[in-house]
């Protein structure tokens, strides 16, 4: 069984796990809202020490949805390790690291939008964008509803309970191993990148902006 390094940093609780044929032999992490780039290297060093004489065969990285900056740190870190060990770096949805076989994930996509994604055993989640006002009506009946964010930001009826879960590198590694070979091959073929739930908001420059003015003639 390949030796697998897993990195999950799409929330403030970043984690790293190392999995071999003996199971998970290392799991560690850090907590930070803004400094994953500084704190994630301590557990990474511990994971490399636990590696011993083995070489890493695959690096699996959580791609969100979640913190864009945190996810970028995880991807850059994983790609660096993969470069050293001459192995693939693979992006996997952080939703698979929730540890649920079935459920509905929700999140705030900003600017009046939300997103929802259905988790089902054996399937890769596909987040869908919709107006935040329509989020509750889009939830599947009887499926556990969870978020990686603060549940209080979602105002639903009393019948809808939203649990806060934290994705972990250990569960991400386990989810990766549980995917079919066809699913893993499809993910290996795509470079890791943060999950983009909607196009970036770009403000167009006004006509009078200095960058749009021609040089004055004189």
UniProtKB/TrEMBL annotation:
Residues 32-97 form the Gcp-like domain. Pfam families: TsaD. GO terms for biological process: tRNA threonylcarbamoyladenosine modification. InterPro entries: ATPase_NBD, Gcp-like_dom, T6A_TsaB. It comes from the Bacteria. Residues 193-218 are annotated as: Disordered. Residues 208-218 have a biased composition (Basic residues). This is tRNA (Adenosine(37)-N6)-threonylcarbamoyltransferase complex dimerization subunit type 1 TsaB. The gene is tsaB.
């Amino acid at each position: 069984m390949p030796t697998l390094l897993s990195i999950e940093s799409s929330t403030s609780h970043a984690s790293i796990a190392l999995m071999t044929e003996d199971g998970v032999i290392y799991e560690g992490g850090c907590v930070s809202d803004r400094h994953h780039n500084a704190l994630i290297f301590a557990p990474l060093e511990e994971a490399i020490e636990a590696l011993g004489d083995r070489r890493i065969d695959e690096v699996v990285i959580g791609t969100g949805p979640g913190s864009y900056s945190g996810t970028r740190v995880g991807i850059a870190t994983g790609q660096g390790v993969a470069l050293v060990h001459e192995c693939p770096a693979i992006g996997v949805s952080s939703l698979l690291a929730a540890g649920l076989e079935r459920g509905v994930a929700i999140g705030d996509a900003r600017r009046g939008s939300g997103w929802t994604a259905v988790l089902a055993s054996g399937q890769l989640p596909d987040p869908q964008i919709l107006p935040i006002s329509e989020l509750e009506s889009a939830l599947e009946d009887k499926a556990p509803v969870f978020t990686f964010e603060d549940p209080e930001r979602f105002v639903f009826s009393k019948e809808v309970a939203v649990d806060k879960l934290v994705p972990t590198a250990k569960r991400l590694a386990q989810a990766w191993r549980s995917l079919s070979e066809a699913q893993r091959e499809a993910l290996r073929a795509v470079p890791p990148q943060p999950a983009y739930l909607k196009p970036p908001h770009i403000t167009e420059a006004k006509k009078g902006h200095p960058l749009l003015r021609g040089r004055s003639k004189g």
